Amino acid sequence: MCLFLIMDSKKTLHKVIYILALLVLIFAIVGTQSRGASLALMGTFAYLWWMGRQKFLGILLIGGVLISILAFAPPVYFERMNTIRNYESEGSAMGRIVAWKTAIRMATAHPITGVGAGHFPVKLGTDFRPPEFGYENFPWLTAHSSYFLILGELGLPGIIFFLALLIGNYRRNSKIYVLSGKSPIL
Predict the structure, then answer these.
(1) Would you state the pLDDT for residue 137?
(2) Residue that finishes a domain, picked among 82, 101, 119
(3) 3-state class (DSSP) for residue 93
(4) Which residues cross the membrane (predicted)?
(5) What is the number of domains present in the chain?
(6) Tens digits of residue pLDDT in 111-136
(7) Is the separation of the CB atoms in 143 and 100 below 8 Å?
(8) Residue 186 has what pLDDT?
(9) Torsion angle (degrees, nearest 10) of CA 38, 40, 45, 50
(10) Model-level pTM?
């Protein structure tokens, strides 16, 4: 969003404000040590570079962000990012994988209705307790994924509707992009 606002703004002051907002968001990703957000940031920059017209400027901007992260990120950020390689030994990642598998079990058991909107953590903790956990000190988790959460809570109709919204939005935006003749960035 910030990148779009930077490119779309006519006033220099607005561009500066949006650039600062983008920097705050990038530092927030580093500060929270979110592996998913870091991967999403890399994917977003790669996509925008691929779709952009000014490849050299894009490489300079991406390089600047990378150098800033390397220079200012604390060592604990890089330690956390290294856990992506060995996710099997990391509790947070394994908890999500267990929750995702449970969402599939919920959808298999209730393909049309799911377990009900807002009931994922309750049903995971009661009716669909994963075999990986015992009955003592079981954490009531959420799926941490819109796709799996919708699949478990709303079943196949819910996930089909959600995917139709996403695909329809993508197609409409692609059409607008082609009609406008503009590059999404740079």
Answers:
(1) 57
(2) 82
(3) helix
(4) 12-30, 36-52, 59-78, 147-167
(5) 2
(6) 999 999 999 988 888 888 777 665 55
(7) yes
(8) 47
(9) 140
(10) 0.69
